[in-house]
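During the reporting period, we have paired protein sequences with backbone structure tokens. One record among many follows, to show the layout:
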Amino acid sequence: MKIRTRMCTSLDGYVTTPDGWPAQLADPAFSPETYGFVEFQQTCDAVLMGRTTFEPALGAPQWPWGELDVFVLGSSRPAGTPDHVVVDSDPARLLERVREANRGGDVHLVGGPSTIEAFRALGALDRLGLVVVPFFVGSGMQLTPTVATDTALTFESARPLPGGPLEVTYVCG
């Protein structure tokens, strides 16, 4: 089991737009397929995320994670959370629950910099994947405000995606 991120960042280094939406949503041509999210998710058995990332999915017309096991780092269980979703406020304890439930596939770590850093600090982040979107957003949340600068990264791969984004993956550790 590998824990992998795959998040979008603008050319000027922001993972969200000024109004807090994920950077890729500023692209009028965005689709989960062309940005490689559908393909990526097919390689995973679970998704691990922060509460802020999870809550918007509760009102979505379609559950975004299909048959994946879902784990949420949060201090409380949001109203409307399906019974099969595991919620825990302790990153180490939640990580243990992810490992216990693992069926052999990878885990998609989704969330903002604080969530990413919580699991990186535990030594659990295996791959840092970035999709660099071909535009600037000017402000918003940066990828790195809470990520430790001592993170050792080794380049693994890069590939262009349809429409201009570039996917870059680094091995952590």
Observations:
- The chain has a mean pLDDT of 91.
- The domain at 34-132+145-172 is CATH 3.40.430.10 (Dihydrofolate Reductase, subunit A).
- The beta strands are 3-10, 44-50, 69-73, 86-88, 106-110, 127-133, 153-160, 166-172.
- The radius of gyration is 15 Å.
